[in-house]
């Protein structure tokens, strides 16, 4: 099966409340300062049975609102890296949120996963190590809608700001927050 994900929209989600001025700079540890620009990719799959009679765009709207709420206590994720000073400028710039259509059923992807095809579900390449200048982002989200009604929510978190445990903690906090909006 060849899967070609179609990007429908891209937008920036900002924290629901501004970061207090005294928290505007987040200093990276020495190890985080020298870490390569790689990301922790997480893909969560939900079959259509979980979303009976729910419009996928309404669901996406709820996820965006809950993401904005979750970014408030996780404010460094919505900031901008400052390489010269080894800080995160917690300027509430926001995170990339992408909506995409996947022209197949969720079961086709889950039953026979292929690495290159799964990469299309991510908001960007998580292991891109290049000497070229690339805008470094701290967090990206992609909401993938399958023909069958199932979805895959993909998150890429910069390893400079999070390890695996803290990335999962963020995703769990977002999941908990999203229950308030559904």
Task: Provide an overview of this structure.
There is one protein chain. With 182 residues, the protein is α+β, with helices and mostly antiparallel strands. It has a single domain, classed as Chloramphenicol acetyltransferase-like domain (Chloramphenicol Acetyltransferase, 2-Layer Sandwich). 26% of the residues lie in helices and 27% in strands. It has 5 helices and 8 strands; from the N terminus they run E-E-H-E-H-E-E-E-H-H-E-E-H. The protein has helices spanning 30-34, 56-71, 106-111, 115-119, 164-178; strands at 6-13, 25-27, 39-46, 80-82, 87-89, 95-102, 139-146, 151-158. The strands form 2 sheets. It has a 5-stranded mixed β-sheet, covered by helices on one side. Strand 7 and strand 8 (151-158) form a beta hairpin. Helix 2 (56-71) packs across helix 5. The radius of gyration is 17 Å and the shape is globular. The protein starts with 5 loop residues before the first strand and ends with a helix. 30% of the residues are buried. Residues 130-134 have low confidence and may be disordered. This is Vinorine synthase. Keywords: Acyltransferase, Transferase.
């Amino acid at each position: 099966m060849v899967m070609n994900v179609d990007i429908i929209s891209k937008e920036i989600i900002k924290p629901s409340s501004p970061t207090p001025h005294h928290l505007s700079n987040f200093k990276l540890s020495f190890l985080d300062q020298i870490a390569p620009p790689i990301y922790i990719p997480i893909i969560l799959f939900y079959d259509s049975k979980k979303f009976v009679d729910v419009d996928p765009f309404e669901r996406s709207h709820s996820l965006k609102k809950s993401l904005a709420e979750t970014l408030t206590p996780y404010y460094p994720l919505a900031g901008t890296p400052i390489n010269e000073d080894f800080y995160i400028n917690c300027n509430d710039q926001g995170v990339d949120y992408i909506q995409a259509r996947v022209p197949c059923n969720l079961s086709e992807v889950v039953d026979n996963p292929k690495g290159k095809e799964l990469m299309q579900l991510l908001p960007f390449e998580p292991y891109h190590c290049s000497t070229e200048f690339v805008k470094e982002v701290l967090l990206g989200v992609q909401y993938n809608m399958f023909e069958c009604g199932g979805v895959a929510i993909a998150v890429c978190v910069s390893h400079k700001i999070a390890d695996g445990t803290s990335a999962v903690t963020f995703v769990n906090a977002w999941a908990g927050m999203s229950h308030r909006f559904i």
